[in-house]
TrEMBL record, chain A:
Record-linked Pfam families: DUF2231, PSCyt1
Residues spanning the signal sequence: none
Every DUF2231 domain range: 15-138
Statement: the UniProt record of this protein carries the keyword Lipid biosynthesis: no
Protein name: Putative membrane protein
Alphabetized UniProt keyword annotations: Membrane, Transmembrane, Transmembrane helix
Residue ranges constituting the Cytochrome C Planctomycete-type domain according to the UniProt record: 181-240
Transmembrane parts of this sequence: 15-36, 48-71, 83-102, 114-135
InterPro entries: Cyt_c_Planctomycete-type (IPR011429), DUF2231_TM (IPR019251), LRR_dom_sf (IPR032675)
UniProtKB/TrEMBL annotation, chain B:
Gene3D superfamilies named among the record's database cross-references: Alkaline Phosphatase, subunit A
Pfam entry (one): DUF1501
InterPro entries: Alkaline_phosphatase_core_sf (IPR017850), DUF1501 (IPR010869)
Cited PANTHER family: BLL7424 PROTEIN, DUF1501 DOMAIN-CONTAINING PROTEIN
Upper classification of the organism: Bacteria, Pseudomonadati, Bacteroidota, Flavobacteriia, Flavobacteriales
Protein name per UniProt: Arylsulfatase A family protein
Length: 460, 502
């Protein structure tokens, strides 16, 4: 807006959000009355319709005028604003026509009640659209659908692979602005003519000029506004919204002072104090926790049920992750025969790529049973302790390429097992207490394979 | 509500009679519950979501896989079970792990006011005219590849330092025993909140339906500050999540054995009928405590066989008793409890909590510390070794610690051989071992007086947040709504201490 608008106009304009509720309620109620009259086929429900419509039209006209006054503040513009503006006027006009129809103004050339009903339907539709666009202006376009059950999950913003490569503006500063500022400062609702939707707009500043002075946070309006006394009317965000935390302010200052408000600089390119690094790490970690749950292939519920019926204990490692920690308690083996165990172990086959931890301790697992767990390529922890297993059985282990830990305590393995296990790419922890393995075997192995990653635990 | 009653009336004449006999209390209960019937409905369903609730089927069917309705765990857990060796009374960090050699030259000097910095003291030493510095008379040495300092009072623990993660900058808010222990265990200084074990039981359920998810063991003949069962209580969580105390002696769990002249042959039948009656009651009143009661009857029934099995230490070979120390043959001692803890952990009990009283050395600090170490050092170290060689440290978390630390200045008279120490909340040492924490690692640092934390402080809520994290739980998201507010273990605070995680 070129010329200054008087404060009184904006003051009255701000009653727009209050007044709009009158036509919304009244006109919807008119629609409801008409519906009732149609459904029950009773004319008496239409008696108050003209009055209701007239009240609706008058209040809608008020809302339009006051709304126009609000728009003069210059805080609103863009596509959605235009739609809201014109749909609001259209609603008022069509409602007025509906009123004229309801009192029979056009009786001479329009016959029957159909046009009248159509006009009321049109009012309701226009009203809904106007209301929706108005809501989008106030709360932001994604406000309505953000938590809808059927809406698509948040778009993956380009997340940096690690902290060093993350761009300070994009990954550290932008999320703060998105969280705390953008609901009022964006295209469509530029409060104070300031948009923080992207870097260019932020640097351009608002109606009082730039809000960021690179290298000098103290002189930057943005920082001043979020750090002055909360009671000050210039304090941002305004009352009722969550203020910036001390950490967030520290990050903004860091970006302005140290990063010189650059849009491209990455963390590795600038000098980051320990304190700031701590804050950044914490913020990144929080995102990691909430988003990065490793998940496995989909499993059939019937396969899981079969395992439960067979007596397996099944824990899902992360809700809905399809990754499982499974053990077979001894009491699940009724007969205790080798064949019974084989039958049960075969049940694991359908979900073999979903098992991360498997515990088969004290079940009389023999060398022959190894074949049933041979191809569990996702397995990281395997407990085979207290079983009559020998090195021969373990020689047939293959494909457990992700195994990190294997528990063999109380088995019949001997020192030969090390050369077998040494070939497993990820394996780190081996437990061999109470077997034929002696301390000198371990020393001997360590001597010969100096860079073996295996930690062999006997008894300390 | 009314519909339920109608069904009851048409089906059951006796109940119909009872239903008619409203008294004032019933009337009030009914009318208020009537309004909340829908809310209760959803509540009851939630209760059923957790593993520890019986299913009445034969026990080869594991109920531990019913989809967790709380959406837990939030991410893959590192820890499956935990044993928390609580050293009640406030063990002196300066006599055990926090080595302060510079104090030797300051013997008897007054604690500089800049260090105390106006801190409010307890009534027990606030009146002292001076605060003479009391260096530890117990010597320290470095051990293991991690070169950790451990005092001579802990010769056994010094052998396993490479498995331990010391947290030297622990801080709490409370300065007296009961609020401090309550704070440590429940996240609030006031009683009434669920303890950590109850939270985990509620959130993650049981891994062994024949034993409670949360078991506490208290060393017998404990002197000093009392411990209350609310420390392992369920607070506002459903009652079946409270810790069950195992005692020493003939009845490890009270009221579990059959009364005289009854062999229990028809108990199953009796329980089945009792369940039917309770279910009728539940349908009518919708009180979730009825579920809890039924679950506990069933649990007690299964525990009649499982508890004698697990508490029987006669199968343990002699070298195990030697390893845990001579006390381990004496049921109810800390040593015997450590051994019992290992057996319970092997049975996948999720939370085993030991309490050992007697660490409150206001007087005779060096002697008191040595005496407690004599009782606890060997078994603690043995438990860690035993868990390690069985491969159980992979997913079992061991926690050692008290409710606060002790002051560098002497409470009462300081002599070259004796001194006392008062409570000190601003700095103390804890250690952890196993599942997901860095072995052979020390985190945090105190000043030369072991008075203030100068590097990496860990608040009680941070510790609790980290514990939850190790179990795959985001402490900020795991809440329970009670009296109109969502509660969590860490209240409105707590940061996961990422630096100590593997």
């Amino acid at each position: 807006m070129d010329q200054e608008v008087s404060n009184l106009v904006i003051f009255i304009g701000r009653f727009h959000p209050l007044i709009v509720h009158l036509p919304v309620g009244i006109l919807l109620f008119a629609g409801l009355m008409e519906l009732l009259a149609r459904v029950t086929k009773q004319e008496r429900f239409r008696i108050l319709l003209p009055f209701t419509l007239l009240t609706g039209v008058l209040s809608a006209a008020c809302a339009c005028i006051v709304g126009y006054m609000l728009s003069l503040s210059g805080d609103y513009n863009g596509n959605i604003f235009d739609l809201h503006f014109w749909f609001g006027i259209a609603t008022t006009v069509v409602a007025f026509m509906a009123y004229l129809l309801s009192i029979g103004k056009f009786q001479s050339f329009i016959k029957g009640s159909v046009p009248y009903t159509i006009s009321i339907i049109a009012v309701v539709i226009l009203l809904s659209l106007t209301g929706h666009y108005g809501g989008s202006l106030t709360h932001g376009e994604d406000y309505l659908m953000a938590y809808a059950p059927f809406s698509e999950k948040e778009k993956e913003i380009d997340k940096p692979k690690d902290i060093a490569n993350s761009v300070v503006f994009q990954h550290v500063v932008k999320p703060i602005l998105d969280d705390k500022c953008i609901s009022c400062h964006r295209s469509g609702k530029k409060k104070g003519e300031l948009s923080m939707q992207d870097y260019e707009n932020l640097i351009r500043g608002g109606k009082n000029g730039p809000v960021i002075l690179a290298g000098n946070s103290k002189q930057s309006e943005l920082v001043r506004r979020v750090t002055i006394e909360k009671s000050d009317k210039e304090f941002m965000p305004p009352e009722g919204k969550t203020p910036l935390s001390n950490e967030e302010i520290a990050l903004l200052e860091f970006w302005i002072n140290t990063v010189k408000a650059s849009s491209k600089a990455t963390i590795s390119e600038v000098n980051v104090s320990e304190e700031i690094m701590g804050i950044i790490e914490e913020r990144f970690d929080f995102q990691e926790n909430t988003n990065s749950l490793a998940t496995g292939e989909k499993v059939n519920e019937s396969d899981i049920e079969a395992l439960i019926l067979a007596g397996f204990n099944i824990r899902e490692m992360g809700f809905d992750s399809n990754i499982y920690d499974i053990d077979l308690p001894k009491r699940a083996l009724v007969e205790g025969t080798s064949n019974e165990l084989s039958v049960k172990l075969k049940l694991l086959q359908p979900i073999k790529n979903n098992i991360k931890k498997l515990s088969l301790d004290g079940l009389n697992v023999t060398d022959d049973h190894i074949q049933y767990i041979n191809e569990f390529k996702e397995l990281e922890q395997l407990e085979l302790d207290r079983n009559p297993l020998t090195t021969t059985g373990l020689k047939t282990i293959k494909g457990l390429n992700n195994l990190i830990s294997i528990n063999l305590f109380g088995t019949n393995i001997d020192s030969e097992v090390f050369t077998v296990l040494n070939n497993m790419p990820q394996l780190k922890h081996v437990y061999v207490w109470n077997t034929k393995v002696k301390q000198q075997d371990i020393d001997f192995f360590k001597e010969n394979y100096k860079d073996s990653p295996l930690t062999i635990v006997l008894d300390n | 509500m009314c519909h339920h009653d109608d069904i009851l009336r048409s089906n059951n004449k006796d109940l119909q009679q009872i239903e008619k006999q409203y008294d004032r209390r019933q009337f009030l209960t009914k009318t208020t519950l009537g309004l909340g019937a829908m809310a209760f409905g959803s509540l009851l369903n939630t209760e059923k979501a957790f593993g520890s609730v019986f299913n009445g089927l034969d026990d080869t069917i594991s109920p531990s896989f019913i989809k967790n309705k709380l959406g837990l765990p939030h991410f893959a857990p590192k820890a499956k079970r935990v044993v928390y060796l609580f050293q009640s009374g406030g063990p002196s960090q300066m006599e055990l792990f926090d080595y302060k050699p510079k104090l030797k030259d300051m013997f008897g000097q007054d604690l500089p006011p800049s260090i105390r910095n106006g801190q409010r003291l307890t009534g027990m030493s606030a009146d002292q005219t001076s605060f003479p510095i009391a260096p530890s008379i117990i010597d320290f040495k470095q051990y293991g590849e991690s070169r950790a300092w451990v005092s001579d009072a802990m010769p056994y623990l010094s052998e396993v330092v490479d498995d331990l993660c010391f947290i030297k900058g622990m801080q709490t808010d409370a300065i007296n025993h009961d609020p401090a222990i309550t704070f440590m265990q429940t996240g609030s200084q006031l009683s009434g909140r669920p303890s950590m074990g109850a939270w985990l039981s509620y959130g993650l359920g049981s891994d062994n339906d024949n034993l409670p998810t949360f078991i506490s063991l208290v060393s017998k003949n404990g002197a000093g500050q009392p411990l209350y069962s609310r420390l392992w209580g369920n607070g506002f969580l459903p009652t079946e999540h409270q810790g069950v105390q195992f005692r020493s002696g003939k009845d490890p769990v009270l009221f579990l054995s059959d009364p005289e002249n009854y062999d229990g042959h028809d108990r199953r039948q009796m329980l089945d009928y009792l369940n039917k009656l309770n279910n009728v009651q539940k349908d009518s009143y919708g009180d979730p405590e009825i579920d809890a009661r039924m679950a506990q009857y069933e649990m007690a029934f299964r525990m009649q066989t499982s508890v004698p099995e697990v508490t029987d230490l006669s199968d343990e070979p002699d070298d195990i008793f030697e390893m845990y120390g001579p006390d381990s043959r004496d049921p109810g001692t800390y040593a015997a409890n450590c051994l019992m803890a290992r057996k319970l952990l092997e049975k996948d009990v999720k939370f085993v909590q030991l309490y050992h009283q007697g660490w409150d050395q206001h007087l005779g600090c060096p002697g008191g510390v040595k005496m407690n170490c004599k009782k606890t050092d060997q078994p603690t170290a043995a438990l860690i070794k035993d868990l390690k060689r069985r491969g159980m440290l992979e997913d079992t978390l061991v926690i050692w610690g008290g409710e606060f630390g002790r002051t560098v200045y002497s409470q009462g008279k300081l002599t070259p051989t004796d001194y006392g120490r008062d409570h000190h909340p601003k700095a103390f040492t804890m250690f952890m071992a196993g599942a997901g924490v860095k072995p052979g690692y020390t985190y945090g640092k105190t000043d030369d007086f072991s008075y203030n934390v100068i590097e990496n402080p860990v608040h009680v809520h941070d510790f609790q947040a980290t514990l939850m994290h190790l179990f795959g739980v985001d402490h900020e998201k795991f809440t329970y709504k009670y009296q109109g507010r969502r509660f969590r273990l860490t209240d409105v605070d707590g940061h996961v201490v990422k630096d100590i995680l593997t």
